[in-house]
Amino acid sequence: QERLVESGGGLVQPGGSLRLSCAASGFPFSIYDMSWYRQAPGKERELVATISRFSGNTNYADSVTGRFTISRDNAKNTMYLQMNSLEPEETARYYCNKRRTFVSWGQGTQVTVSS
Fold this sequence. Notes:
The protein is mainly beta. The chain contains no helices and 10 strands. β7 (68-73) and β8 form a beta hairpin. The N and C termini lie far apart (40 Å). The mean pLDDT is 96.
């Protein structure tokens, strides 16, 4: 069964860092562009970052450019999101998925930025 499992979230102080992981299974991970999304209370799900399937080209939302880094390890069917200089505006539940045709959404991982 196709599955996505996000992990690595938690409570962090403003200015801190977190590294999120996305473990994929049940589909050929390496041939799909993948993205990180986030959803804060009362807001729509937002595209945060995308990484291409083979070349590793990346794209970021303007709000996170320069602070977040998306990466992937196709041998491990895993994608990562390194988040630095976190601010309260980044508080949200973070999800991963294919960029174009979605697999069933996972539970996400909660990131809370607060002092």
